[in-house]
Specification:
Rossmann fold, alpha/beta, 3 domains, 13 helices, about 15% strand, globular, about 425 residues, 4-stranded antiparallel β-sheet
Length: about 425
């Protein structure tokens, strides 16, 4: 029997072994099934993963020490793996009061917010492999992959209260049509709508870029609302543009939030959270110690940025790099170099100007540097114990793609209040 790969695990009975999964199904699918089963082993949702998970554990998992195969009963294997999925920074609240699923999960911004309020995540999906690494490191669970595949959708449990999804925005082919459910086929929103139609959660919580409001001359949002309200029968109040800076983080990040409630809830009104009366600035999340030299710009790179900005200024454009003062608010963190270049800072604490990376020129003496991945994490409301197990380039991308946790949490609190679901007092 051929094996696709070995996965190192920690010790069992004082000895180190390797976990081996056979190639019959994609290895990521098996890992997702097993970790989801273990996360839900003490509640009813485990039944949706039990058959496949136990099959994997009993038939396809072998522990190998040197040349000797060692048979271990499934229960012992479960206990060992259960320890691993629970030994993470963010575990499920013991006395959870509601269940939710996390679609297009990224690195778990929605999950973090919902768990902070006492929620139990019973299914998660994210196709990006690097994001899966970060998700697993923090929540002990491997997300299922492509949500457009039926082999993924079939594992979604029935019994959950809230569907969360930060789905990508796509245009729909609705010319000459009513712009209903069928007209969204081939888009990722269709998969979200299909899951809502099948599972009928009490509430839905969708997040997208601010531009969705005007995307395709407003037709995209119009179609989404028509599907949710008319085809699926949900009460959906007018979507709201929420700015993260109003909820405790020093980042000017506007996103559109869409909330909905099933007819069965009887909810016919909803109020989005009001801005907090709290002033925050970059200094509040700035690194306490001077960051490594690699984050400080070279003189050549800085010269290029100045020239680039000057060219655009001469054309009447405002495009170019920007330096955020300590008492200022950061621009939205986004993927790509522009997200970093529009969020440069001055850090005069640097004393060692010796380059630690391959750069052209010298390290600039003005103290101009990029923000660190940890600072981006803080701008998005992630606590410092949130693990960053990937390289800097992937970390910037992941936090740039993430939701702002405090804004999500403030809105989710309003959703739970409307549903009359008790919020767990033991927040993180």
């Amino acid at each position: 029997m051929k094996f696709k790969q070995n996965i190192s695990i920690t010790e069992f009975a004082g000895k180190k072994y390797k976990l081996r999964l056979v190639e019959t199904d994609p290895i990521e699918q098996k890992e997702a099934i097993v970790t989801h089963y273990l996360h839900n082993i003490n509640n009813g949702a485990s039944k949706y993963f039990k058959k496949e998970a136990e099959k994997t554990i009993k038939e396809y998992i072998k522990y190998k020490k040197e040349e000797e195969s060692l048979s271990i009963v499934a229960e012992d294997a479960i206990q060992q793996l259960l320890f691993e999925v629970n030994n993470v920074p963010f575990t499920t609240p013991e006395n959870y009061t509601f269940k939710f699923i996390d679609l297009f999960a990224g690195i778990g911004g929605f999950r973090l917010a919902m768990q902070n309020l006492g929620g139990k995540c019973i299914f998660t999906s994210e196709w990006d492999k690097e994001a899966q690494k970060t998700y697993r490191a923090n929540f002990g669970e491997i997300p299922f992959g492509d949500i457009t595949k039926e082999q993924t959708k079939k594992f979604i449990p029935n019994d959950f209260d809230v569907l969360c999804a930060g789905f990508p925005c796509q245009a729909f082919s609705i010319a000459g049509k009513r712009g209903g459910f069928e007209d969204t086929r081939g888009t990722l929103f269709f998969d979200v709508a299909e899951i809502i139609k099948r599972k009928k959660p009490k509430a839905i919580f969708l997040e997208n870029v601010k531009g969705l409001r005007n995307h395709d001359k407003g037709k995209t949002l119009e179609t989404i609302l028509n599907v949710l309200r008319n085809d699926l029968g949900y009460y959906v109040p007018e979507p709201q543009i929420i700015n993260a800076r109003n909820y405790g983080v020093p980042q000017n990040r506007e996103r559109i939030f869409i909330v909905g409630f099933s007819k069965e809830t009887g909810i016919k009104e909803f109020e989005y959270p009001k801005p907090l009366k709290k002033t925050v600035k970059f200094a509040d999340i700035k690194e306490k110690k001077v960051p490594p030299t690699k984050f400080f710009l070279s003189t050549q790179y800085l010269k290029t940025l100045h020239s680039h900005k000057e060219r655009h200024a001469n054309k009447g454009n405002g495009f170019g790099f920007e330096i955020i003062p300590d008492d200022g608010i950061a621009n939205a963190v986004v993927c790509g170099g522009m997200g970093r270049e529009r969020n440069l800072v001055i850090d005069k604490r640097i004393t060692d100007f010796t380059p630690t990376t391959h750069i052209k020129g010298e390290v600039n003496r003005e103290g101009i540097r990029k923000m660190t991945p940890r600072e981006w994490a803080r701008l998005q409301g992630f606590p410092d114990k949130f693990a960053i197990p990937v390289a800097d380039a992937s970390a910037y991308k992941q936090f740039g793609n993430s939701v702002a946790v405090p804004a999500i949490q403030a809105t989710a609190e309003k959703i739970l209040f409307a549903l009359k679901i008790k919020i767990n007092a033991n927040r993180k």
